Amino acid sequence: MANLILKNLYKIYPDNVTAVKDLSLEIKDKEFLVLVGPSGCGKTTTLRMIAGLEEISSGEIYIEDRLVNDVAPKERDIAMVFQNYALYPHLTVYDNIAFGLKLRKIPKDEIKKNVQEVARILALEDLLDRKPKELSGGQKQRVALGRAMVRKPKVFLMDEPLSNLDAQLRTQMRIEIAKLHKNLETTFVYVTHDQTEAMTMGTRIVVMKDGLIQQIDNPQRIYDRPVNRFVAGFIGSPKMNFLEALIIEQNGRIFAKVADSLLLVSIARGQELKDKGYLGKEVILGIRAEHLYGKGDLLARHPECILSGRLEFTELRGSETYQYVKIAEIEVVVRVDSELQVETGQKVKVGFNMSKIHFFDKESGVNIA
Ligand code: ATP
Predict the structure, then answer these.
(1) Domain 4-234 belongs to what architecture?
(2) Coiled-coil regions in this chain (predicted)?
(3) pTM confidence score
(4) In the chain, where does the domain assigned CATH 2.40.50.140 lie?
(5) Listed residue (64, 296, 28, 13) closest to 188, CA to CA
(6) Which of 152, 291, 311, 335 could form a disulfide with 356 if both were Cys (CB 3.0 to 4.6 A apart)?
């Protein structure tokens, strides 16, 4: 059991930089929790406070119901894996992995058994005699993981462990770390600025901005129900499209008016907008590229959900293509089947799947319907 509780954490650096503001979070046993957000949002600081490497300005941290505010890092039963691997260059892979165990004066035989076990899991068996400089980036990262694993910690903390690897290796290591989590059945807290990593690895995601938690949820819910415009724009690739829209009522029906065209809003959503006082007001309409369509049945069947634009350029991605379409002065990205070929510069119609649309308050950015 290794649950972790963060209560009202603050970190204020000298010069009054508030890196983490009133952060409360319960990390469950065996969970893979990802802290994600743009550079400077406070995720590394949060992780370092959990590790005991950074002093807490105020608040409390509990590991397994034990207050650890004043417990030294090495007494916290956690292991941290860093972006730059932090391997000892003069030691072999074997000695790097064994280092922590030797410090703890574990008998030699036991160390050997443990190192070999870890090396087997991480496919490092043939590399045990090499020095770090003789390893590839991915191999170094596996050694860093091995060094953490061999201590059998209650909690693994990882700070952007894959950011020094090339794209292909990153994808591979992503899968390996996710598998490792499954096999080890240990709590993982993982920091990244890469939303793809967060979405594919985390059982729960914490999205942060400016030291504040924006949303905590599982990946699917974060994607489908972002609480505000920031989360909606940060999670998902390509980025969610945002358009300004005026909410109006005509003949008893609610429409979102975008660049002089009307999009029919469903009765329920329309009522919600009306109840919240948005009639006659501008809001931000958000829709993902896969919920816009370029051609086909839906376009023919739903003339009330179509805007016209001009195709600016296309990006072939294999089976799908991103079409960048300018509607009035706003560019939206539409994800279409690659078989749908349209020449750039042509006028195109863009259909909106209105059941997948989000409305955000223009000032606060809060998701309103
Ligand atoms: P990145 O992805 O760039 O590492 P992050 O989300 O991990 O960013 P932090 O490193 O936690 O962000 O930094 C949060 C804020 O605290 C930033 O504004 C940063 O400049 C500031 N900060 C971090 N470390 C210190 C420090 N030692 N002294 C003063 N300010 C700091």
Answers:
(1) 3-Layer(aba) Sandwich (3.40)
(2) none
(3) 0.91
(4) 241-361
(5) 28
(6) 291
